[in-house]
Specification:
170 residues; six-stranded antiparallel beta sheet; three-stranded antiparallel beta sheet; 4 helices; 9 strands
Length: 170
């Protein structure tokens, strides 16, 4: 959704409030593509705080389906988005991140929401705190069933000593 900022730039208005609808169906980043399961419309307030300078404020939440970091089962994760961002149209230092936010005289709300989701991305996603994960050897989801794989993990730093004991036992 594009919001026309020409009335703010011309000085006709000091504040603009628009009802914004999240249009994205999927969210893609370097980790993959994740479906958006829940989204709500929200009021976005844009205030002029100087010449070609804006304060963008709004609050909403989106839910994404992200795989559990341990068992890879899909988990619906709600990501709260509290937008409070100052944008200077004349600032050239932040062009790499924010140049796509304002195109001409229009604010691209989808790019704004995309940036906010990136900033608020969860560090770890778990289906439950007690998630057992998957077996490293056979790939069985240990939350649903157990496997018969050998679960003893030996310290690789002790490999030489283990070889000495194995050679002496022969």
């Amino acid at each position: 959704m594009l919001i026309n900022l020409s009335k703010l730039l011309s000085g006709d208005q000091e504040t603009l409030t628009e009802q914004v609808t999240v249009e994205m169906e999927t969210f893609s980043n370097s980790l993959g593509t994740f479906p958006v399961t829940e989204k709500t419309s929200f009021p976005l307030k844009i205030s002029k705080v100087g010449t070609d300078k804006f304060l963008i404020e709004g609050e909403t939440a989106v839910a994404l389906e992200i795989p559990c970091d341990r068992c890879l089962e899909p988990v619906s994760v709600e990501i709260p988005l509290i937008i409070c961002r100052e944008y200077d149209k004349n600032d050239t230092e932040e062009e790499s991140e924010e140049e796509a936010l304002v195109v001409g005289y229009h604010l691209d709300t989808e790019q704004l929401i995309y940036c906010e989701i990136l900033v608020n991305w969860p560090m770890k996603t778990l289906c439950t705190e007690a998630c057992k994960g998957i077996c490293k050897k056979c790939g069985t989801n240990l939350n649903h069933s157990s496997c018969t794989c050998d679960t003893v993990e030996l310290d690789p730093r002790m490999a030489k000593i283990r070889d000495i004991f194995n050679n002496n036992s022969k």
